[in-house]
Amino acid sequence: MKSTNHVQEAILVEILILIGKSGLQIEEILTIANKRAEEYRKVKGLIQKLYVKDNSTGHIGGVLIFDSKENLEAYRNSDLAKSTIEAYKLLEPPTARILEVIKVLYEDKERIISKK
After folding, report:
1. I want to staple 18 with a disulfide (CB 3.0 to 4.6 A). Which of 90, 92, 94, 97 is the partner?
2. Per-residue confidence (pLDDT) for residue 11, from 0 to 100
3. How is the beta sheet containing 95-100 ordered, strand by strand?
4. Model pLDDT, residue 107
5. What is the CATH number of the domain that holds 50?
6. 77 vs 1, 11, 29, CA distance in Å?
7. Residue 1: inside a domain
């Protein structure tokens, strides 16, 4: 068995987590997410976007997984990213966290982005 002390290049990803409070109902949020989905499918380097809700606070958010820091930063500076507050009627700018994956449990890339 091969042992390494670093994440292999093929599975390095950058994660952007956005959390905010919307003035919309969840059904309206999902309708907007569906309308914007094709735009997100065109974002360079975006591997996956997860739409999330915190049931304890009612906050909504997105977990965006990118193939590189450069593509994540390009997205953050894009018109699509800048339109998020208005599109989802956020009551204040979302909290943003950028995380670098330093280790994965499953080294199979497909396992990272889909449940099997």
Report:
1. 94
2. 56
3. 46-53, 60-66, 14-20, 95-100
4. 72
5. 3.30.70.100
6. 42, 24, 22
7. no
